[in-house]
Amino acid sequence: MKPRIDKLIQTIQSLASVDETEREMLMNEVQKIEKTLDRKDFILKRMEKDRSIAINILQSTIEDMQKQKNALEDANLRLKAQQEELQYKNQIIKEKSRSLRENLHMLEQSYHEMEQFSYIASHDLKSPLRTIASFAQLLSRRYNKHLGEEADEYIDYIVAGVRHMNEVIESLLEYSKIGNASSDMELIDLNEVLRIVRFNLKKELEDQYVIINVNELPTIPGNKIALVQLFQNLIHNSIKFRTVQTPVIDIKFRFIEFEQQWEFSLSDNGVGIDPSYASKIFQPFQRLDTENVPGLGMGLAICRKAVKLHHGNINCTSNQSEGTTFTFTLAALQNAPLVDKAM
Questions:
Q1: What is the CATH number of domain 184-331?
Q2: Is residue 168 very low, low, confident or very high in pLDDT (cuts 50, 70, 90)?
Q3: Is the model more confident about 11 or about 246?
Q4: Higher model confidence: residue 273 or residue 83?
Q5: Radius of gyration of the chain measured on its C-alpha atoms
Q6: CA nearest 268: which of 288, 297, 238, 303?
Q7: What mean pLDDT comes out for the span 283-306?
Q8: Collapsing DSSP states into helix, strand and coil, what is residue 148?
């Protein structure tokens, strides 16, 4: 466009028929046109530059969007793969859970069948055992010192063995009763339970001048037989493993609201328990002492079974010569505790 303007200016300047005033007017008009053209040319170039910038921005945006699209597709693929993996794992978990429930059900059935078998077998063994004991005692009475010292010793072995076997059977029967009592749940006043325990242990309590410190106990849902066995075995244990001091037993309790459980502790001033027994004291037939102390090691096993029946746990803390504290929990009522204070 510029060369044409320059040519037009030259043409105007070469016109001889045009006077100076008209030439000047024409030149002014041409300059205005030139300025207008320059401004439009600038605007056009600016627009082209802006267009180029806009195109670059648009291309960059499109590229970024494409990258984001690709990333999103990759993320969707990974998510889909994770969902498929999760579904697969969930399916495995469901199958294993179903298998576990089935195995647990079978185990419970086997356990109950074993308990029933233990109860029936123990009960049925008592009759022939009584027969053996009767005849052994009859032999001892009639032929004592008549058959010789060796025969008398053999008869004593028979009588002692029968007596021990009878103790084992009685312990197994008590242990089986706890398991068969799981459905007999009712509201139990633990004060009444303690009265029964005091009556059952009346001779031991009086002979040893035992002191039991306890406040009013709560009422809880439970099985009376199991709760009597629980408190009776723990108190009897404290008496059995006493020192030369007067046995003192402290029973305390508190209500754990957020767990809806009663927590009980039974402490004594007895000989304590060797730490080496800590991992097995609640197992059946695990004695805590030598043969100097009578018993078969079933008392604490019965306690543990009674506590488990009430959806609780039991443990003990002890130092030798400083006494023992048994702590156990029992499921409470769903509403507020019947006794507000913890002792």
A1: 3.30.565.10
A2: low
A3: 246
A4: 83
A5: 49
A6: 238
A7: 67
A8: coil
Tokens of 9: 């200016």
Q: Contacts from 124-133 at CB under 8 Å and sequence distance 24+?
A: 125/165, 125/169, 126/166, 126/169, 129/162, 129/165, 129/166, 129/169, 132/158, 132/162, 133/159, 133/162, 133/163, 133/166
Both tokens assigned to 185: 């749940």
* pTM exceeds 0.85 for this model: no
The full 3-state SS of 283-336, as one line of letters, equals CCCCCCCCCCCCCCCCHHHHHHHHHHHCCCCEEEEECCCCCEEEEEEEECCCCC
Question: What mean pLDDT do residues 330-342 have?
Answer: 52
User: Which strand (E) or helix (H) includes residue 187?
Assistant: strand 186-189
Q: How many Cβ atoms are within 10 Å of 283's Cβ, its own excluded?
A: 13
Q: Are the C-beta atoms of 241 and 297 separated by less than 8 Å?
A: no
User: Domain map of the chain by residue range?
Assistant: 116-175, 184-331
All residues at 6 or more sequence positions from 155 whose CB lies less than 8 Å from its CB, including other chains: 136, 139, 140, 143, 144, 147
Task: Provide CB contacts within 8 A for 200, sequence distance 6+.
Answer: 228, 232
Find residue 331's DSSP bridge partners.
261
| In contact, 26 and 12? CB cutoff 8 Å | yes
CA distances from 245 to 211, 268, 325 (A): 11, 11, 17
The pLDDT-based confidence of 97 (bands split at 50, 70, 90) is confident
Selection from 159, 100, 90 nearest residue 129 by Cα: 159
Per the CB < 8 A criterion, the answer to whether 216 and 251 are in contact is: no
